[in-house]
Design goal:
Helices cover 72% and strands 0% of the residues. By secondary structure, the chain is an all-alpha fold. The chain has one domain: Globin-like (Orthogonal Bundle).
Length: 149
């Protein structure tokens, strides 16, 4: 069974767990709200899309846009990284627990790569904005197509 399929079938449960974790984090700019839930939902849907299509372009583009928007709005990078982290943790708790043992290694690698690419794009963009210069990317092209530098 593919990790993307399991993620899609467990979407509501993953989203609920991610929202609860974000609420417990008590972040200044991410209060418990429908808008925060919508941001997590968008991120989760992009992870599923990347897994299904085996491309990093959607998550990388999204993370760059989020970094720009949140940087301009005065967010701390740790707040935005926490949003990525709660989605990842929820995926581990819900999705990985439902996969057969023989698919766990690949699933963990795929999920980690997608979210890692998003976190990398987020961090590079944030650092570029803070430093006023371009920061290069990790080379993940061996695992997925579309990793931008």
């Amino acid at each position: 069974m593919e990790v993307a399929t399991v993620l899609e079938s467990a979407r509501a449960e993953v989203l609920e767990e991610a929202c609860e974790a974000l609420d417990r984090a008590h972040l200044k700019h991410y209060p418990a709200s429908p808008r925060s839930r919508q941001h997590l939902e968008t991120l989760l849907d992009l992870v599923a899309e990347c897994l299904k299509r085996r491309t990093l372009i959607p998550i990388s583009s999204y993370a760059q846009g989020v970094a720009q928007q949140r940087f301009d709005s005065g967010f701390e990078i740790a707040e935005v990284q926490t949003a990525f982290n709660v989605v990842e943790e929820a995926i581990w708790h819900v999705v990985i627990a439902r996969l057969p043992a023989d698919g766990l290694i690949e699933a963990a690698g795929l999920v980690g790569t997608v979210l890692g690419a998003g976190k990398d794009a987020l961090a590079r963009t944030w650092v570029s904005l803070a430093a006023g210069e371009h920061v290069t990317s990790l080379d993940l092209t061996a695992l997925f197509e579309g990793a931008a530098s």
